[in-house]
């Protein structure tokens, strides 16, 4: 599946750099090009996200038949759109490039259904959410599923210490200390996963999606992310996802 959509003409003098980087990235063998794209488009903004080639070429890559290149393109495009939403407090970039965003989203949903690797799948779900643009904290939500832990603040207004919510091979619990770095005798509090039947909204949708796509273990992890944890300091129970949202500001 190759795309035949024409690359838009660009006449501005600064177009060589994005064109060159995107061409190198599209080969799928140049990780430095991807690193440079992230730096120059996302981190320092020295390249213009609204440049006509950027989302257009990323959409072409997403619709190509190389899974890794498509995943990289979807990840970057989703992050750029969410950053633009937040930076400008408008959805202008999404509106300006609506056909490209639609192509990216369609590709993300196709790749999601055929991706077996756990973490690759998680990043495609993140891309879907970022491309849809309804929430700005998909990265934070998915990061915890991938890394199997969330570092959060207790919602208590008096402020408890940071806490960790562990979801995965090390168990399902909250703790005041970074469990990975500490002795085994650290006090832990079991998590309270959501009953799948009671999930609503985004939790319901992501849970159903993961199961339909054959990722039972991710579906189970999501019941913890959309469930409750106990603060190790004040022992108050709170919504994990609620504090993920709170932390992402
Ligand atoms: Zn607390």
UniProtKB/TrEMBL annotation:
This is Uncharacterized protein. It comes from the Bacteria.
């Amino acid at each position: 599946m190759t795309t035949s959509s024409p690359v838009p003409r660009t006449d501005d003098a600064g177009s060589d750099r994005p064109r060159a980087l995107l061409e190198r990235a599209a080969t799928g063998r140049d990780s430095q090009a991807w690193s440079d794209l992230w730096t120059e488009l996302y981190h320092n903004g020295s390249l213009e996200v609204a440049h006509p080639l950027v989302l257009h070429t990323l959409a072409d890559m997403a619709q190509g038949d190389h899974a890794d290149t498509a995943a990289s393109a979807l990840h970057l495009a989703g992050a750029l759109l969410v950053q633009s939403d937040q930076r400008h407090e408008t959805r202008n970039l999404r509106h300006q490039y609506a056909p490209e965003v639609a192509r990216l989203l369609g590709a993300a949903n196709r790749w999601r259904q055929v991706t077996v690797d756990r973490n690759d799948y998680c990043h495609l779900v993140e891309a879907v959410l970022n491309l849809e643009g309804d929430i700005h904290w998909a990265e934070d939500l998915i990061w915890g599923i991938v890394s199997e832990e969330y570092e959060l603040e207790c919602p208590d207004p008096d402020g408890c210490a940071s806490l960790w919510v562990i979801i995965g091979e090390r168990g399902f619990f909250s703790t005041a200390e970074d469990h990975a770095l500490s002795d085994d005798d650290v006090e832990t509090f079991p998590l309270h996963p959501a009953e799948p039947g009671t999930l609503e909204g985004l939790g319901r949708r992501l849970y159903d999606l993961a199961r339909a796509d054959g990722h039972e273990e991710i579906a189970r992890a999501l019941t913890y992310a959309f469930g409750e944890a106990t603060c190790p300091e004040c022992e108050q129970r709170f919504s994990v996802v609620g504090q993920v949202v709170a932390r992402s500001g």
